[in-house]
User: Fold this.
Amino acid sequence: MILGIASSSAQYLRVERVPFFGAAGSRSETTTIARDRIVLSQRSVATTPEAIGDILPTSFGDGRFLLGFDGRIDNREDLSQALGIGRLTGIPDSVLLAAAWEKWGDDCPAHLLGEFAIAVWDDRDASLTLACDQTTGGRPIFYHATDDRIVFSTNLVPLLGVPDVPRTLDLERLARAAQWQWPADGSTYFHAIGQLPPSGRLRWTAAGHRVERYWRPDWSRRVRYRRDSDYVDAARELLDRAVAAHSRVVGPLVCELSGGLDSTAVVATAARLDLTRPIQTVTAVSSADAIVPREESYAFHDEWTRVQTVADLYPNLNAARVPALPMQADMADPQRQFARTGMPGPNPFDRSWFDPARGEVAALGARSVLVGASGNVTLSAQATTHLGDLAAHGRWVGLIGHAARLANAPGGARMAGLVRSAAREARAGVPAPRGPDLGPAITARYRRGAVLTLPAAPTRLAAERQGFLERTVEGRRVANVTSRALYGFESRDPLGYLPLVEFCFAIPPEQYLHGGINRALARRVLRDRLPPIVVEEQRLGLQCPEIAARIGGQRDWLLATLARVERSPQAAEILDLTWIRETITAIPRDLHDLGSESATPLRRVAAALQVGQFILWVEDGCPGLETL
Assistant:
């Protein structure tokens, strides 16, 4: 974690030992460097072998620069060649970064691959530069800037502890969080605190500050090969590179594993890269007494059977099955999460289902865990929106051909319906960047989806992907901040590897529709490394399938929590409390009567109430929060 204060006047700065939250919530020692106009502190946990023993923050450039760096750099070999560094063994990423900064200055982040938060102070012009990575989303930087000072941190908690940083809530942002929408627009849940967007770079001087983005998807870039198999080979090579880069860990290599395409892609690839390296996987499953609704035609519940078939292929995989604990009311209480992260996070009922598995990861001593969160943006993306683009350009032969193949695929929609839908989309044109409209748990005033700060996209598919990428990255940030604060380990997502993102955005959309099969690129790429039961599965895998009963079993606690939330005018402004109460009171006493259709409204209730509790927590003065 990095924390810093820069000011135009030394009178604003205090040099003191800064408390940070450790894995168990204890105060940990930090390293602090102070100069006339800057105090920079960092609590570092080595997550790559090269980082062991590295002390940050540090100075470089004969003392001209101060550097805070949290994360890892993946393109070490490329950087060493560009910088003329002959030997990489034992050299930490921070040394490479310092040399890169001296060569490229503020343009340095554009030359980096990895997951990082960077703070660089330049004594020569008394300027501060903050930067974060492009797509993995795991290292946000939060800041509060005034005319003569900026306070920043990689966690919201320290900023909320600064006495003169206002805690005025951004209700529009909270309304979006209450329905699982986290647009990467630079806002936070507090008007006075901003955060860098993905690929964000902030430059601050006493004259003010500006924020820009040093990377955007290049929709004009094209990757074209002669044969379909060439796309598969190229995607496999990138997947191998991505997983190898993310597998530089301290301690055991641990992966979260479900039965779907994305996490299995990461795990199988990691296992193939080094068959002598043991890999521990952790799979959350339902407890024996869980009330699980019957499977629907579009989804399956049995993750473990599929996990076992993957583990059977690779002798170096040790797969652990971790049943969820029975739901208790205190599991849904998010107060500890608020005090550690300063934000509402994932649905507490979902989180409680994963808690035993993540506790298992922590018990293994892992500092990093590999996940497959961004697959829907990259390798396993869908491209049916491309049909609308074909219609818009009058490519009716191609449209009808794709529609016919999709209609013949298992579970496919009717061909005529696909063509009509594509024609409607073509007439509507490319939509302006906007998040999806919010659901019924939100009042009508705030229900409209947020306008996204994105450039216009050339096609409907590009616009869809651009928005999906933004929301995925911001969701990853929330999840990783929560993981680090509550469980003591970071999550790494190889499927968000920047070269893989750029490749997947540049290849022809037809590669995702190949043969009329949904998520066709991933299925062809993974056919050589996953069993047929996983590769050929057309249904979605549902984690926490008993979520309706898990939430519904806390009916009395939900009503009691709602009664407290109803006393807050701010909560009442954004939450449709009448709908929430009606949904809770409609929960049947016999939880076996809850079908799968009950899950979505109850998830909405749980997420909305968590935001309501967060509002109460802030109104009560953020109890449990350590202050500077």
Observations:
- Confidence is low (pLDDT under 50) at residues 15-27.
- The first helix runs from residue 76 to 83.
- The first strand starts at residue 2 and ends at 7.
